[in-house]
Structure formats: C-alpha cells, structure tokens
Amino acid sequence: MKTGFSIREAKRTDYQQVKEFIELVDNEFCPPLSERGKGIPERIDSCLDRPESNYLVATLPEKKESGTYNRFVGMIGYTQKWKKDDKAYINFLATHPEYRNLGISKKLCLKLEDFLSNRDCRSVHVCTWSSNPAAMRFYRELGYHTYTVVLNDRGRGINTIYYKKRICIK
User: Fold this and answer.
1) Residues 26, 18: contact at Cβ < 8 Å?
2) 141 pLDDT above the threshold of 70
3) Buried b (16+ CB within 10 A) or exposed e, 25-34
4) Nearest Cα to 121, choosing from 77, 165, 80?
C-alpha cells in the first residue's frame, strides 16, 4: 500500500471532503459527532479555514477519470487561542480506516504542534474518553499528560480524559 502522503491546511473548497471524512469516522466518537450540537455541518463551519481554527489534512494523490484527486487519509482539527492566547485545542483527529497504523495521526499531531509553536502557542490540549485505550496510549506516547478526568461524562462508566502538552515557541 502506498503511504506517501502530504499534509496541508484545509481550504473552504475542501468542505465536501471534510464533511465526508468526518461522516466516515463519525460513529467512532463517543457520542458520535453528528449527535453533538447542531451536528457535523456546525462543527465544520466553526472550524474550517477560520482565522483561529482549521484542519490539517493528510492527502494521498489518486488517479480518477477527471484527473488527480487528493484523497483525505487523515485529519486533525484545532482551535488556537483556546481559553488563553497561548493555548490550542485539538477538536478532531482521525485516520481513514484503510490507512491506520501507518503513522499518519502521529505525523498530523507533530505537524500541528510545529505549526502552533510558530504562532506563539505554549500548550496543546485534547480530550478523549476512557473507552478508547488506543487514543489514551497514543497521546501519552506523544508526551501529553492527563490534567483532568470527568467521571461518567460520556455515559455510565465512560470518563472524559483531558490531556495537555507544553510546546516550545519558535
């Protein structure tokens, strides 16, 4: 399987691909993103190509009849100046099911941290839930530390776990 992907900032013209990607992995979130707030469209509208938020997308070029199509194989969403000017929040991270275990999420996180460090960000925050041990392990391996646990936040026996990581400003 070809794994030569590139990472770039999403643009407004990527709206449909962003939507389709989130829909693809929607049920892997607890609760599904489509059941939060006003659903996936609101999430995209509040994040895509905004001054303080956006998505970084990992793309893989594929040939289609109409030319080259850059298939999304991973995506990370972020909000800068979250709660304070020097904090950022990861609001979405997923890898396409067919491209997992290839290091795409790790590269997206590291690229985002580098990107944010150039924008005077000192820490990155993220949350996941206790029924997702793979995500918990992933963030710990990247140097994120637990700072809050909200018990039964996502249902009985499912806790929300908040992580943060200090990053150096460049």
Assistant:
1) no
2) yes
3) bbeebbeebb
4) 80
